[in-house]
Design goal:
This protein is mainly α. The chain is built from two helices and no strands. The protein is elongated, with a radius of gyration of 34 Å.
Length: 65
C-alpha cells in the first residue's frame, strides 16, 4: 500500500508539468509587434562641438620633464 502511494506521489509533479503544456494557445496574447511599438520618424543627432583640452600648467609640465 505504501509503495503504490509513493509511486503516485513520485509521478504527480511530472503529470502537473505536462498538464500545463496542454492548455489551448488561443488564450494567450499575440507576440506580434503592435502599432504603438512600431518605430516612426527620424532622429537626428546634433553635432557635437569640438573643444580643445585645457592647456597644462607650467608646473605640471615641469614635473613631466
Amino acid at each position: 500500500m505504501n509503495r503504490s502511494r509513493a509511486i503516485v506521489l513520485a509521478c504527480l509533479p511530472t503529470t502537473l508539468l505536462l498538464a500545463g503544456c496542454a492548455t489551448p494557445s488561443t488564450e494567450f496574447p499575440s507576440l506580434a509587434i503592435r502599432d504603438s511599438e512600431r518605430v516612426s520618424g527620424t532622429m537626428e543627432v546634433p553635432g557635437t562641438p569640438v573643444t580643445a583640452p585645457a592647456p597644462l600648467a607650467p608646473a605640471t609640465l615641469a614635473q613631466l620633464d
